[in-house]
Recover the amino acids of this structure.
């Protein structure tokens, strides 16, 4: 089953919420854990217990594991493995982007089913040219995985590139969405190649959101994005969005029941999207 099909099933079963697994130093301390490899280990294990089979998506941020070196990467690998095949799909937030054999090696590392760090989907950066992402799309197709491409992110610096106009007359962000539309053409219920569009983008000036793929929407909740923002930004394609939040849910830890209740409450609020 393709990632697009599995994503649709998971969203129908659990709601669209994606819980970000972001072990910031201050969050570990808030949970009463040391900012250490042992603290990271306990944090990750608790997140797996709380969210596996309870939410549609979990999104570990690779950097917060990598900062602990090889031992942190080993915990990330175990976290991905423990979440997979539970009904909860993993989106590894790595924002990789490169060319040729290097891109292919990254794709193999994160999307090959036999890799110890295999995820259901990853985030990638298209700013070496959309064509540079071909190895990621190929690996995703071979492994029924997904790829989310940065399109319109909510950091203020992004507009310098994403709102720039290219030779086609489109903005860079629109060009990415147009490319995704081609990549997802004919897929049902939706394609496996998605976009990353921030919930706090001030003005989303695009008519290309209906590209037949999922839209990962970070910035919802504690970072400022609201249900009204989602409705304003995404209009008729709200059924394709995957709102992602970390702090709104993880702040309720380390108690597993409280974490689950927080995730359920956020999913309930998203039901207002209709």
């Amino acid at each position: 089953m393709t990632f697009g099909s599995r994503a649709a099933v998971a969203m129908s079963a659990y709601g669209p919420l994606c819980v970000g697994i972001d072990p910031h130093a201050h969050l570990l301390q808030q949970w009463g854990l040391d900012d250490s490899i042992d603290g990271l280990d306990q944090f990750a294990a608790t997140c797996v217990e709380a969210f596996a089979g309870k939410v549609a998506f979990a999104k570990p941020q690779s950097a917060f594991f990598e900062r602990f070196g090889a031992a942190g990467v080993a915990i990330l690998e175990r976290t991905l493995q423990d979440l997979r095949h539970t009904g909860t799909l993993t989106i590894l937030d790595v924002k990789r982007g490169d060319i040729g054999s290097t891109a292919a090696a990254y794709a193999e590392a994160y999307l090959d089913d036999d890799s110890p760090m295999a995820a259901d989907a990853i985030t990638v950066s298209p700013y070496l040219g959309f064509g540079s992402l071909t190895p990621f799309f190929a690996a995703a197709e071979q492994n029924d995985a997904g790829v989310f491409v940065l399109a319109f992110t909510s950091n203020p610096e992004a507009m310098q590139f994403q709102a720039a106009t290219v030779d086609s007359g489109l903005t860079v962000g629109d060009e990415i969405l147009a490319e995704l539309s081609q990549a997802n053409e004919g897929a049902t219920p939706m394609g496996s190649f998605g976009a990353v569009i921030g919930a706090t983008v001030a003005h989303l000036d695009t008519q290309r959101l209906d590209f037949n793929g999922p839209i990962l929407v970070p910035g919802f909740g504690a970072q400022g994005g609201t249900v009204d923002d989602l409705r304003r930004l995404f209009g008729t394609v709200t059924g394709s969005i995957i709102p992602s939040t970390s702090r709104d849910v993880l702040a309720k830890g380390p108690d597993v029941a409280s974490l689950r209740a927080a995730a359920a409450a956020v999913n309930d609020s998203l039901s207002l999207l209709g």
